[in-house]
Specification:
The protein is built from six helices and four strands. It is mostly helical. A two-stranded antiparallel sheet has the order 1-2. A two-stranded antiparallel ribbon has the order 3-4.
Length: 174
């Protein structure tokens, strides 16, 4: 009986001590969250997919050129054209002088040569080839300018209200 009385009188202080200890561990863990990375870039944004919470950013709301990330939208439009049957993997695309002259990273296709859509997709996706991207844009829409209109229309449909594309490969707009 004395044992149970002692045990009861100690149970509340033990529970309180355990609670305080656990909450202090949580506070210590929260303090050990590392600061955002110090990287030599103009800007970045890291977001949790499930919650939509921004975890870290540097100039995350500032407009900047997306560079080759633009090829994700170009690829999306191209793959939709493949899916709809408008173009096919085995289509042969004649490389225009405009595509051939496009600066930046290249697949190194020759002007006037015939290259399959499949090979151009590899050049765009693997090598980030700007020449391949422009050639595919011309094949899908007749011109890069018309293709860029398709990219912007698709962006609106996806709810990308802060995006505006000016060329297919994502080169700086002169």
């Amino acid at each position: 009986m004395l044992y149970s009385t002692v045990l009861r009188s100690l149970s509340l202080p033990l529970v309180l001590a355990f609670t305080v200890l656990c909450s202090s561990w949580t506070a210590v863990r929260a303090e050990t969250i590392p600061p955002p990375p110090q990287v030599p870039v103009r800007g970045y944004l890291l977001m949790d997919y499930q919650s939509g919470n921004v975890l870290a950013d540097l100039k995350g709301e500032e407009r900047m050129e997306p560079a080759s990330i633009t090829k994700l939208m170009a690829g999306y439009v191209i793959y939709k054209a493949l899916q709809s049957g408008k173009i096919h993997h085995d289509d042969q695309v004649t490389i225009s002088e405009k595509a051939w002259r496009t600066g930046g990273s290249k697949m190194f296709v020759k002007v006037g040569s015939q290259v399959s859509v499949e090979d151009l997709l590899m050049g765009m996706d693997v090598q980030s080839g700007n020449d391949a991207t422009v050639a595919l844009a011309e094949h899908v829409a007749g011109s890069e300018e018309t293709f860029v209109q398709l990219m912007n229309e698709q962006a609106v449909q996806l709810g990308m209200t802060s995006s505006h594309f000016t060329n297919a490969p994502g080169l700086p707009d002169p």
